[in-house]
Give the backbone structure.
Amino acid sequence: MTARRYFGTDGVRGTVGEGFFTPDFVLRLGWAAGTVLRAQGRGAVVVGKDTRVSGYMLESALEAGLSAAGMDCVLLGPMPTPAVAYLTRTFHARAGIVISASHNAYPDNGIKLFAANGEKLPDALEARIEECLGQPLVMVPPTEIGKARRAVDAAGRYIEFCKRAMPDHLDLRGLKVVVDAANGAAYQVAPAVFTELGASVTAIGVSPDGFNINRDCGSTAPQALQREVLAQAADIGVALDGDADRLILVDASGELVDGDEILGLLALARHRVGRLGGGVVGTLMSNFGLERALSEAGIAFARAKVGDRHVMEQLRQRGWQLGGETSGHVISLDRSTTGDGLITALQVLAVMRESGLRLGELKRFMVKYPQRLVNVKLVAGYDPDACPIVQRAVEEAQADLSDRGRVLLRKSGTEPLVRVMVEGQDATQVDLLSERIAEQVRVAMATR
């Protein structure tokens, strides 16, 4: 098998029109994926996208490539990533494809693939697609060219699927909910889900124009949601990202509730009624306060490498159900095959309803350790793990923290960044050490 050239931790991603990420490449990717899938038998591939302006172009290229390989297409239009995972199963498709760069700005885009069971495509199949990309594009005979159709009931199916995350005896009547759809893929379905469950809904970030996805809105920029929650005297604010597979919440006082807090309050609620199903998987970035709070409750906690693929691997290996990332990507395997921002939000609302507690009260289970994340622009070809100066800075910082904190240095799997994370009990020390390491990374890249 060839080495990975295109597939990263979350499919293929890049800036549209730069480097390899062009319509021609996406057409060839569609053909390669279709060729590999067709070897397992002819069928359909469902294709969804977010609201980026490049989505129209890439959808057409992908459709052409899949058709040339003899695969039919079911075009969903703008649809959250978890919705595509779900609809891949319900349409009995061979695979699902999402055209999205998630939380990135509009110039970027990406291609994510799901297997027929709604889970991320296995590594072996991705490797075979990589191999196929290096071969000449050969069409199937004209009699076998794939057809395409638009799904007319996709949104309704997914809305009903989300609503089932609320127990039958609960609804949202009497609650004020503000939802920020990040001008992204959930701009239609997200308000509908909460409204149909009886909530009084105020929706922001629901006016996509192709260019404003994730811009000053959504889970990566929740300040607008915080202001709106206070202005509406709402009970909760829900901020999704561009493809709605993750979220950040806002409590009634306007304070943020991140993925660690969401994961922990869901775990504790399940644990109390004997429905946790094992332990909890976090990541290397998960705050130590989460691990400590779960440990005190008698809940096992394991750390995976950053990325939902790695969280999923740990869950499968351990036979557990609940895991997630600080960024708000929460996976509940008893509910969905992938992270789903809407389903996660509904589970939190169910805990609020059943406990009679407000979100601000529920999140008090943990005391966060001060944590600082510094992103440094990555110079192509640079490897921080192979730089002695940077590694020395990391070792010195860890020595300063002793056993009262930790340091994490890694390259992002989705963006050209080096991420420097320092966590400890003293916020001033954390800030100082994180900036010191980040500066060494900048110097090392400038002098390489």
Q: What stands out?
A: The radius of gyration is 22 Å.
